[in-house]
């Protein structure tokens, strides 16, 4: 079937796209901030709340558990729209951030950070689906990749802010944790007035509203004819579609590579200062050391933003996982140095992690159609956080029982598993329209009314 030009896929990159990318990056920024700021707060929380390794692991993993739960909200994003929850989830985040200031026990902190994670997890399918559905195809990889750059910006800022705020005094951890409310309030104000996705509106049969959004964003001459896709509603929103013929392989690919990428990564970011202490690095200023490592992850994303189109999605992620495995392997094999090898391990792992980072939200948004796009982002996020929760929970236990070397060797095995998944399952969607990239894998299962 011949597909003519689509105004969304072929639009010129504009100020609207820049603003939408910034607003949609708010969730990942806060994810990085919230998951990393706890690492600095632990310096004071652990003795004040008398936390053992079990409670440290549970609190460290609590936001990840919440993200796992929040990922299921992707279904409601597909049912009721991207715009509806685009602001509401951050209001919940603001309230939970402030409540952290008043906790008195470990279980209270665990519960509140669980709620924080739910709000962040809910934002992933909302914001990334909206961004993907407005993105021109030539800029889609970079626009969605920038959201992961925002994660590492949030993480780096958190370590620096947390280290500076420790000077407040013995109760500084309360202010440190509550500080996530500040960027959340700013983002709520910025997001007001963001339009609904015309692809989603059209898929729901709301043609007049879809055309109104097109005119608002692209000018008064824009019309539904510019979408170049049949305007009838397509398939139903359903979790089962992700595990049926045509999409099961894609669901497994995204969920498993995502899990292999974030399981060791989140553990390192959450317990960065403790990990650096095991390597005898940045003694007395581990927060700044963790900020440097987070900044390395940020730098690693930048080449991937350019290579995602030039090298191609499949080759880039395979090469990236191979490089990440080598980096973590160095950290596991040489826990006592020499220092040059330890630093090389961190640098190699961080620089090659850019490929999977860029693909984590690009892949599910490209590989699934409009009616299940938010659901797919949510479910694959859930799969990834399942591994991340266990990795973060077990990391402090592994450090205390086996030491840094064996713990990092386990992380290397997980990363190598991601390499195998990508070799066996990774598809190629470079330079395809969103419509073409999201077509089912099996020709025999095509939708009669494909999603816009």
Automatic annotation (TrEMBL):
Localization (cell): Cell membrane
Major facilitator superfamily (MFS) profile domain residues: 20-430
Membrane disposition: Multi-pass membrane protein
UniProt KW keywords: Membrane, Transmembrane, Transmembrane helix, Transport
CDD domains: MFS_SV2_like
Pfam hit, one: Sugar_tr
Name by which UniProt lists this protein: MFS transporter
């Amino acid at each position: 079937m011949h597909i003519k030009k689509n105004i969304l896929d072929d639009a010129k990159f504009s100020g609207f796209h820049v603003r939408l990318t910034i607003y949609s990056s708010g969730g990942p920024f806060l994810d990085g901030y919230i998951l990393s700021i706890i690492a600095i707060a632990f310096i004071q929380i652990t003795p004040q709340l008398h936390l053992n390794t079990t409670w440290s692991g549970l609190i460290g993993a609590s936001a990840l558990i919440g993200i796992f739960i929040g990922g299921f909200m992707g279904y409601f994003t597909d049912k009721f729209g991207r715009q509806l929850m685009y602001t509401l989830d951050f209001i919940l985040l603001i309230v939970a951030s402030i409540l952290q200031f008043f906790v008195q026990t470990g279980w209270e902190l665990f519960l509140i950070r669980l709620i924080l994670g739910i709000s962040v997890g809910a934002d992933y399918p909302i914001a990334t689906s909206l961004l993907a559905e407005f993105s021109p195809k030539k800029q889609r990889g970079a626009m969605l990749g920038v959201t992961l750059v925002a994660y590492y910006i949030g993480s780096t800022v958190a370590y620096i802010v947390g280290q500076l705020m420790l000077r407040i005094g013995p109760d500084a951890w309360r202010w440190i944790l509550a500080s996530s409310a500040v960027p959340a309030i700013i983002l709520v104000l910025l997001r007001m007035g963001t339009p609904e996705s015309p692809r989603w509106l059209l898929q729901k049969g709301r043609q007049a509203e879809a055309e109104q959004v097109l005119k608002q964003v692209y000018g008064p001459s824009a019309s539904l004819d510019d979408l170049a896709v049949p305007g009838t509603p397509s398939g139903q929103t359903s979790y089962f579609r992700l595990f049926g013929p045509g999409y099961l392989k894609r669901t497994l690919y995204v969920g498993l590579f995502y899990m292999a990428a974030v399981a060791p990564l989140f553990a390192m970011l959450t317990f960065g200062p403790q990990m650096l202490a095991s390597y005898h690095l940045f003694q007395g200023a581990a927060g700044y050391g963790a900020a440097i490592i987070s900044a390395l992850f940020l730098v690693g994303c930048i080449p991937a933003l350019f290579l995602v189109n030039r090298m191609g999605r499949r080759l880039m992620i395979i090469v990236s996982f191979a490089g990440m495995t080598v980096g973590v392997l160095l950290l596991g094999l040489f826990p006592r140095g020499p220092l040059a090898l330890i630093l090389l391990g961190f640098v190699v792992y961080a620089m090659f992690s850019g490929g999977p980072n860029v693909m984590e939200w690009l892949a599910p948004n490209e590989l699934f159609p409009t009616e299940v796009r938010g659901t797919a982002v949510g479910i694959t996020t859930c799969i990834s956080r399942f591994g991340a929760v266990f990795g973060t929970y077990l990391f402090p236990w592994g450090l205390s029982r086996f030491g840094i070397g064996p713990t990092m060797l386990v992380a290397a095995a997980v990363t190598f598993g991601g390499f195998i998944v990508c070799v066996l399952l990774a598809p190629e969607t470079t330079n395809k329209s969103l419509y073409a990239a999201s077509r089912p894998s099996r020709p025999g299962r095509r939708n009669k009314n494909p999603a816009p």
